[in-house]
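Lay summary

Proteins are chains of building blocks that fold into shapes. Our project writes down both the chain and a compact code for its shape. Here are two examples, one after the other.
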Amino acid sequence: MSYAISSIRNAVRYVRSLPARLKRFKEACKDVNVESKALLCLDVVTRWNSTYMMLEAALKFKKAFRYLEGDANYTKYFEEERVNGEKVDGPPDNTDWTNAEVFVKFLKAFYELTLKFSGSLYVTSNLFFQEILEVQVELNDMKSSTNELMSKMVGSMQLKFDKYWGNVEKINLLQYIASILDPRFKLDAVHNSFRYLYDPILAEKMIKKVENMMTTFYAFYKGTVMTPSSSNDQQASQSVTSNASGNRKEKLVEDTNFDILDWWQRNGNKYPIVSHIARDVLAVQMSTVAFESAFSTGGRILDPFRSSLSPKMVEALICSKNWLTCEYDAPIVLRQYMDKIEGLVTSEQVESEESCVTNTGTETTVATPSTL
């Protein structure tokens, strides 16, 4: 898959590198009757959102790129050796284009999901759990893919998914409450999602935990919200905390252009207590991660403006991460070397940060720089 992306990236780079090449490419588009308002764009290799957009645009001009294979200048570009003595991957063949099509279709779901979670001008907490469920559905569908590279990549992604969502004890239950407060989903959708994600015993356990939390919420807000007795609110609470077996189907709102804040504003008088719960829960953003960071594979950057860590400590942290994520069982090796590294770093800090050292009799105390 990486070779397919690299070959298409280099083909795009060839077209965009010179005005004459771009003109020739436009002529090729006319010759093969390719009409598209999309523009070829170069990507940033460490940002998957830009790679996705690069591939999506390039696929629209697949016929034009194949037509260029009859151009000697185009094929020569991939045969020339660069300064390091290596040749550029490409030109992309049918297999590369096929892999790219599968990959773009798969990546589109994550691209759109990240856009939803990164929103700051609309409510996101009610969408989170259902979108996470869609991710699992997408992963399950791609596991059966006949594309060997895609199946391997999905296996790796499933491990990451299970790391964050496999341990239900670490999951904040508020995300489920937010989904219940969405009249398009309610409790039935959460029940069905649990039964899809987890085994029957764990699913029932999670259902009980969410129901108990919602009951606790309702009892707390009932004691703090000064409102007259409301039969509608009683029914709303009962619809959340009863019928765990799913014998009675809840009536769901069906609206493609649904605005949950508008809905609760219009129905707040009917459900004064539950509407207060919705007001507080839905105000929580599900993600504060920048859109670019969510798709970045470049990692975090430490510099003097962002950290007061010494260079040796930064090096130790980076090495530790590499050892922990390597293929063999590295924790034992890590423990053997961390004491030596820590001693080396501490001694250098003592020498270079004399102002931070205070001698107290037989003991020496070092003011440790603040960490991230």
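And here is the second example, written the same way.
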Amino acid sequence: MQWGRHVAGLVFSCVFVVSCFTNKFVLSVLNFTYPTLFQGWQTLIGAALLLLSGKLGWVEMSRISRSAAVSWLPGSVLFVGNIYAGSRALSHIDIPFFFTLQNSSHVVSCVILRVVQREQKTPWLKLISIGVMLLSAVNLPFYDPQPDRSGYLWAVGHLLCVGAYRVFQVHYKSTNLSDLEQQCINYLFSVLLLAAAAHPTGDLTGALEFPSLRSYTFHCGCCASALLGFFLLLATVKLKSRLSLEHFRVWIFLSKVTAACLSPFIFNMDVNAASLACVIFSHVGEALLVYSERDSHL
């Protein structure tokens, strides 16, 4: 029923916004800038809950074959790059600016497709939309009142991984893996890789000396971020099963706009007219992209 689709969309949007704010709170307000541990914790809890849910029959998951898991490993590598660089960037950049940079990942997807599918012609409206998003992202660092070079560099790595992962996920040839099974592989691979990298990167030593390590607020924030990440996965899969790809993208767009609009009321931000214009134009470009791709598959 139509109302059921709206409810699923609203639930997804609420979980998306709260999850985004919780991650920002832990990374920026509490200043827990140790992504191997933070993302390792999130993916560990996500993997455990997903496997438990599958075992209890709460979600549909089949046994993942070794060949299917190996063939999905490039996607898992991109996923780890996505969450690691994303955490680094989000800890330094305000949420509206983060989404402005993240939107330009569509440029990466478009370039990869043009290289892989040389015969494909890009619609003019889509070219305009990605051009607007690219210009907004490129100009943002120059107009940001408090630019953080490290944050923007990590954001570049994040958007590259997001754009490449989007292409890989949509054009992955195997039909043996569902979205939940793909994410299960991502989680397990992430846990192993991030755990191995915790000591060499110095995150483990730094976390042991973290001032708020025994703080009740810190523990609640970390637990909430892990649980919300899992609930966001379930809400995403549920919404995709109920809606067409076009309407699913609309809900993602609305969720990001909602988070960007509400974040100044939750977190301290320094913004001027020029940087605000970059944010607005980026979302206008994203809206044009959603409209231009209403009949496509990416």
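What can we say about the second shape? The mean pLDDT is 89.
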